[in-house]
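Possible regression after last week's pipeline update?

I re-ran a chain I had predicted before the update to compare outputs. Posting the input and the new output here so someone can diff against the archived version. Not blocking, just want to make sure nothing changed silently.
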Amino acid sequence: MADYVLSCCSTADLSKEYFTARDIKYVCFHFELGGTEYLDDLGISVPPAELYRRMVAGEGTKTSQVPVKEYEDLFEESLSQGKDVIHLTLSSGISGSYNSACIARDEMQEKYPDRKIYVIDSLAASSGYGLLVDAAADRRDEGMSIDDLYAWIEENKLRVHHWFFSTDLTFYIRGGRVSKTAGFIGTIMNICPLLNVSNEGKLIPREKIRTKKKVIRRIVDLMRENADNGTDYSGKCFISQSECVDDARAVADLIEAEFPKLDGKVQIYPIGATIGSHTGPGTVALFFFGKKREN
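New output (post-update):
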């Protein structure tokens, strides 16, 4: 067993069962739905179907990052048992959680000066963040030291690709990511915007593609262009989706057919409440390891 603890935030958008099986600790973001505050606890308090149903019905959402005190509690649980800590946060390009975790680290470092506490800005989101955490857990289980794991994550985190599209622009418009005019035209023209996460961990619109069929084809083509060894990619592939599992399955089926050396089947997870509060339903996101992101 490693002499350190690996942890992340619930915005890695995996499942409680996954985190338990892989011995990964996590701390929950917070969100409001219809004026009531909940934990973004992997769909336990508010299942994804209920979240999106209530959003479509008009209930407002608001998200908030993990308070410093909750990071301190997370870290201290392990530190007090004589364990070191390595924690990955949601991208600083879309959240202030990295700064909060660093404040908590500094506080705990004073209290436990003999322990190691690493906080890493994943520059990733949703199950792409989860894919990076999964890779870290693999290396921990293989016996990698905490120092070497920290160096490996920093060296490889920009190799996690995030490509995603939406077939419903309602909440992108409401959140200001798409203008009302562009959103109206896009809806009329049946345009599905294709976005990715930049090397600064920010969400960037990249292409405008007409029809869902074409954007599904395009996102798989982008994996072929960017994945390690192209169609000989032998790593894992994760997808997250917001109440459009059939679209996610269509992407997964193409990938499984065209990438025969995948490490297992494509794993599909629901987009959690924090990310989903901004995307709404209709988003499919694809994650894999490939060439380093440079823009």
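Follow-up from reviewer: compared with the archived run. The chain has eleven helices and 13 strands. Marking as no regression found.
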